[in-house]
From TrEMBL:
Domain of life: Bacteria
InterPro entries per the UniProt record, alphabetical: SpoIIM-like (IPR002798)
Keywords: Membrane, Transmembrane, Transmembrane helix
Transmembrane segments: 96-115, 163-184, 196-213, 219-238, 258-276, 288-307
Organism listed in the record: Paraflavitalea soli
Protein name (record): Stage II sporulation protein M
């Protein structure tokens, strides 16, 4: 093909690529691919032509645009976990504290009720589960429930269940926070009754070493999801100077950020329950190490680090 015909055939496309920005990354990538093909053709047949130089410059420009977008997406991902999410957590520490206090108080109340009413545990957990646990205890394997299922199947089932439960706790906040409080009530009562059942059988400390290997992250996720639900509900109850619909949008957005932040917690908790908790005879030092690591992570990332980051940002602003 003659250079003039090659130019006439493609010049409109090239000018479009040069002066009209791509609407999305996929379109930009497609433009870059076509330009590379045209550039390769030009270098083959017109190596010293101005058309070749023009295409080289245009392709380089689009390549830099792709690289810039990729770098911004990567930095946005890092910024979310390093800055955006922790500052959102700090903004709503009060709601998270309320969620923690409600859940803990109900768990303690449930344990107290179970200690004074022999039927309470069965009423909460159901006869079938209690009898299965008692049967496992009689067999000398009180935590056998964690060993009956395939590891992968158990991991997937628990991960989906954790996500479902936490999402329900969050979304229920739309009912002016009462829905989230109800789910915290329900889960807190179940935890208190469940934990007391093992203490009553003289298996308190062993149950902590086994169950809380995954329970530390799992229960923390439910409490944080409850806080996210309170954010959603309070945005309706207390819109402040904003329109209620605008306040709701902001509350939903901030609450959803917390839920996104819980995704790694869900996955790790499910992994621990599916793959680690089944080894109930693991060394105590290993169990305590996992417990301590999980607890310290939650304490650091959702409590201490957000406070520290907020103070640092406030200090920087005061200097500017």
């Amino acid at each position: 093909m003659r250079e003039g015909l090659f130019l006439k055939k493609n010049i409109d496309k090239w000018k479009q690529y040069q002066y009209e920005a791509a609407s999305n990354p996929d379109e930009m990538a497609q433009q870059f691919t076509e330009l590379v093909n045209d550039l390769g053709y030009a270098k083959t047949f017109y190596p010293h032509s101005k058309v070749t130089q023009y295409l080289n410059g245009l392709a380089s420009k689009i390549y830099l645009g792709i690289y810039k977008n990729k770098r911004e997406e990567t930095s946005r991902f890092v910024r979310f976990w390093k800055t955006e999410l922790p500052l959102t957590v700090r903004k709503y520490h009060r709601e998270l504290l309320y969620s923690f206090l409600i859940f803990t108080a109900l768990a303690v109340m449930a344990a107290f009720s179970a200690a004074h009413d022999e039927t309470f545990v069965r009423g909460v957990l159901g006869d079938r589960y209690v009898e299965m646990t008692e049967d496992n205890i009689a067999k000398g394997d009180p935590f056998g429930v964690y060993k009956d299922e395939n590891k992968i199947a158990m991991f997937l089932r628990i991960a989906l269940n954790n996500i479902q439960v936490s999402l329900l706790v969050f979304v229920a906040g739309i009912f002016v926070s009462i829905g989230s409080a109800w789910f915290l009530f329900k889960n807190g009562i179940m935890l208190g009754a469940f934990q007391y059942m093992f203490f009553a059988k003289g298996l308190g400390w062993p149950s902590v070493l086994v169950i809380w290997v995954h329970g530390t992250l799992e229960i923390s996720a439910i409490i944080i999801a409850g806080g996210a639900g309170f954010i959603l509900g309070n945005s309706i109850l207390f819109p402040g100077t904003r329109k209620r619909i605008d306040s709701l949008k902001r509350g939903a957005k901030d609450g959803l950020k917390l839920m996104i932040g819980l995704v790694p917690v869900f996955i790790v908790a499910a992994f621990l329950e599916g793959y680690v908790t089944r080894y109930s005879a693991m060394p105590q030092w290993l169990s305590i190490s996992i417990l301590a690591l999980s607890f310290n992570f939650i304490l650091w990332y959702f409590v201490l680090y957000p406070i520290r980051l907020e103070k640092k940002n406030r200090h920087i602003k005061s200097l500017s």
